[in-house]
């Protein structure tokens, strides 16, 4: 019977080296996987100790996280940017499910789904993730209002326009069925002669200053029309009268 390769033979050395590599890989995988597990269960970025009736959360993907003028654009609201660059809806859901806020914001402004459709998720799957976000919100923060911003018609993702339109239609329908959800349509504000206007950075995907200015107009109107008058009076020095 042939003897087993000894530790000093070439085969034995190779086997020992392979075993050490396998062990090192297993340890690395365990550590890295565990760290990824911990990171995935962190709250959304941008958490703040500031609370009160005038706090708004801005939750979403890079269109939110890159809104550098947000706090100035939304004054006197206390705008907390909790966006995640490049995030999918599933990632946002996982993070907000582990949020540790002691008090709900006055409202949540939500923009996501753009990446999901571009990465190959179907409209139905993307809508399901929106419903999941709203379910998590309801579990954590009850009837806190959510302002769902429609997906933007960007030059880079113009080939996804049909999918975006179908998602937007369902999002509008969901808002019509729930008192805690408002749909904010920004599509027409970003089109010029039926095509994306000059409201984007050079990448053809992210908004420029004028694009965010148009978003701000639509969002302020939606906030003024849908939040309680007592909240508006508290958070604004001069409150536009509805119906005026």
Topology:
Layout: H1 10-40, E1 55-60, H2 62-65, H3 70-73, E2 78-81, H4 89-96, E3 107-111, H5 114-118, H6 123-141, E4 146-149, H7 161-177, E5 181-184, E6 191-192, E7 195-196, H8 209-226, H9 229-235
Parallel strand pairs: 1-2, 1-3, 3-4, 4-5
Antiparallel strand pairs: 6-7
Helix pairs in contact: 4-6, 6-7
Question: How does this structure look, described?
Answer:
- By secondary structure, the protein is α/β, with parallel strands linked by helices.
- About 45% of the residues lie in helices and about 10% in strands.
- The strands form 2 sheets. A 5-stranded parallel β-sheet has the order 2-1-3-4-5. A two-stranded antiparallel sheet has the order 6-7.
- The radius of gyration is 24 Å and the shape is globular.
Basic shape: globular
What is the CATH level 1 assignment of the largest domain?
A: Alpha Beta
Biggest sheet, spatial arrangement of strands: 2-1-3-4-5
How many domains in all?
2
Beta-strand residue fraction: 5-15%
Q: Please give the largest β-sheet.
A: 5 strands, parallel
Portion of residues within helices: 40-55%
Listing every helix as H and every strand as E from the N terminus to the C terminus, the arrangement reads HEHHEHEHHEHEEEHH
- End-to-end distance, in Å? 99 Å
How many β-strand runs?
Answer: 7
Assigned CATH architecture of the largest domain: 3-Layer(aba) Sandwich
CATH topology of the largest domain: Rossmann fold
Q: What is the averaged pLDDT score?
A: 87
């Amino acid at each position: 019977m042939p003897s087993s390769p000894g530790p000093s033979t070439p085969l034995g050395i190779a086997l020992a080296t392979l075993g050490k590599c396998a062990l090192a890989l297993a340890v690395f995988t365990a550590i890295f996987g565990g760290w990824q597990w911990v990171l995935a269960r962190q709250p959304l970025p941008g958490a703040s100790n500031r609370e009160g009736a005038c706090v708004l959360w801005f939750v979403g993907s890079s269109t939110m996280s890159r809104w550098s003028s947000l706090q100035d654009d939304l004054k006197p609201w206390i705008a907390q940017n909790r966006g995640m660059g490049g995030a999918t809806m599933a990632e946002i859901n996982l993070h907000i499910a582990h949020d540790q806020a002691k008090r709900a914001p006055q409202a949540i402004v939500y923009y996501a789904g753009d990446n999901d459709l571009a990465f190959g998720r179907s409209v139905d799957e993307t809508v399901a993730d929106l419903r999941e976000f709203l379910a998590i919100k309801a579990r954590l923060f009850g009837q806190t209002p959510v302002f769902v911003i429609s997906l933007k018609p960007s030059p880079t993702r113009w080939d996804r326009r049909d999918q975006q339109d179908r998602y937007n239609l369902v999002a509008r329908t969901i808002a019509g069925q729930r008192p805690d959800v408002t749909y904010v349509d920004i599509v027409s504000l970003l089109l010029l002669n039926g095509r994306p206007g000059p409201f984007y950075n050079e990448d053809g995907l992210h908004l420029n200053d004028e694009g965010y200015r148009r978003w701000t107009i639509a969002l302020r109107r939606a906030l003024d029309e849908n939040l309680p008058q007592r909240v508006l009076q508290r958070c604004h020095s001069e409150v536009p009268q509805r119906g005026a």
